[in-house]
Amino acid sequence: MLDLKFLGRGAAFYPVEGNTNAYFEAGGDLFFLDFGESAFEKVYRRFDLTRYGRVYVLLTHLHADHAGSLASLMSYTHCVLKIQVTVVHPVDTVVRMLALQGIAPDFYRYQPALDEDCPVSARPVEVPHAQDMRAFGYVISGEGETVYFSGDSAILPDEVAREYLAGKIARLYHDTASHESAGHCCYRRLAERIPPEKRAGVNCMHLDGDYAGMLREMGFSVVEPER
Ligand SMILES: [Zn+2]
Ligand SMILES: [Zn+2]
Fold first, then answer.
1. Mean pLDDT over all residues of the chain?
2. Residue ranges of the domains in the chain?
């Protein structure tokens, strides 16, 4: 089972819930999904990063609530722990971002995709979010199942919705906003696509306010970060 755990579930302007960043372990490796401004402190406190075969960070996009403390992680792992973290993002804009923050290319490994021999695969799905930045969700397969992590996305992509409703994707982890906008997925859009009997497998995240109770009443699940 791909057991995603969450460091937070908040939107960029709702920091009381932390950043919507997740992680899971597979085959002795550790995988972070995004690494926002509040992630480094939590990871520093909770993880021994040296006990994993490899540590990966899969990035959905470069907004600060998704990549804001990545540079601190890269400095720390290179200079203090002496390990090399692998950063995965379909486009190499992250390399420029890190270079401007003083992170040399040899501090880490950049790859557009996971290694072939990795215990999981992550298929990027480009999603609409910001006009000036590309953003991706990931269809992640491993440990005998497939899940989808949206990052920030205005929509649930048709192909992902079809695969979920057909049972090929076990769970969705999806941006669920309280209101309509061009950048995030309002809960009403999810409700239009997902009938009530299928909503328990939709794990809402990136909340911009206090409406988790309403989402549960509608039949959705809501991610619960570890405190
Ligand atoms: Zn965000
Ligand atoms: Zn964003």
1. 97
2. 5-222
